[in-house]
Amino acid sequence: MTFQTGHVGLNVSDLDRSRDFYLKIFGFEVFGESADPDRRYAFLGSDGNLLLTLWQQSEGRFATGVPGLHHLSFQVPDIEAVRRAETVIRELGATLHHDGVVPHGEGASSGGVFFEDPDGIRLEIFAPSGADERPAPTASAPTCGFF
């Protein structure tokens, strides 16, 4: 058997706010959506591929202190795409960790931006190279592991 990640489903507290956030930062398109007040959801993706499903069935903020999702990471082709995403993240006023683009670790060329969605879900947009202009935030651990 072989496996490939399909889509990721996230619980959100406000579907409209989260949908708009992901559309603006990632440029996703809406594949399907429900306005039923008891079953609100949106299916998002690009190039015909479903990547993310949002389910309005939560309250409060994402809890990092309990077992579950650590962070969700998206790869882009180059560091310029990461920088474009960073600009949108800053424009939206989202929580941005490490103050911008950083490498995955000391001496690594791969890296990106680490930030949070409106519910506090930790996200990463990275490129395989070009992020080595700044030092890693922590020399003793992977950047994506502790933010």
Automatic annotation (TrEMBL):
Keywords: Metal-binding. InterPro entries: Fosfomycin_Res_Enzymes, Glyas_Bleomycin-R_OHBP_Dase, Glyas_Fos-R_dOase_dom, Glyoxalase_1_CS, VOC_core. PROSITE patterns: GLYOXALASE_I_1, VOC. GO terms for molecular function: lactoylglutathione lyase activity; metal ion binding. It comes from the Bacteria. Residues 4-128 form the VOC domain. CDD domains: VOC (cd06587). Residues 128-147 are annotated as: Disordered. This is Glyoxalase. It comes from Streptosporangium minutum. The lineage of its organism: Bacteria, Bacillati, Actinomycetota, Actinomycetes, Streptosporangiales.
